[in-house]
Amino acid sequence: MQVTAGARGTALGRIGLTGPALDTFCEDVGASPDYVLDLFDRLIITIAAWKGGVGKTELAKELAWLLDGVLVDLDWDAGGATRAWGYRHETRTNAPLLDALERGRCPRPLSGKGVRADLIPSHPDFSVNQPASQDMAAALEKWSAELKRPLVIDTHPGGVPSTVGAASAAHVVVVPVNLETRALAATEQMANELQGGYPLLFVPNRVEAAPESEVSRLEKISTTYGIEVGPPVHSHAFLKRRKLSGAVCAPGKSGQIPASNARFVAEVKDVARAVLTHAVRNAIAQHQEEALS
Question: Is pTM beyond 0.85 here?
């Protein structure tokens, strides 16, 4: 299914990039509108972290909806995006992700009906049926080319083959970072293992406070490995209690975002714009390197 100009416009409108705002964005990143729109149609965004419980799935669900993209769930655990979306593999006779990888074809995303992102669901058996990292990357690139829509990929924690493959295929790898000792240790390990060639973007997530020692450690990791730090997303108590499967950023039929959700929505939109900025600049830099080689 090809993305239409209207669908693309809807997605950019959701993150405030229409008209003069889009022109200003293009000037800031040093690219023409046509270049940005062409990249948008084939954008691959991977959400990854070496530690679980840092908020990957929250960001993946919301970014996928904001960008009118396809949420690809590579996390086989029950607490991942698939179950949160409302998909239950126990009631299905097929496994779209596994079937697509086995047959070498592009899976058909399940419709989110406008209130959540369209989904390629995961399956518990993916844990023992992951392809090699290079094969996972090739599959995602093929799906992106066929769907002509942004892919937002939620991954299993750690450097498992499917996660590394998703990182290899990505224009941007969004790394949610909790300002906590163990989370920062895992972030540093990830930065060390993926240094060189992986377009990582740190996003401080679930931020409750900004303790000086943890902020300094994140800044040191960022400086050491040359990884940009994006806008933060604070801790929001309502997310822990929320049972609805729709995206928080989706206003629904009322057309209104509840006041209690407004700050979170604004922060995720900031992240979405930072992700697109990072993707365009990375793509331009890669093209320049290829031209010189």
Answer: yes
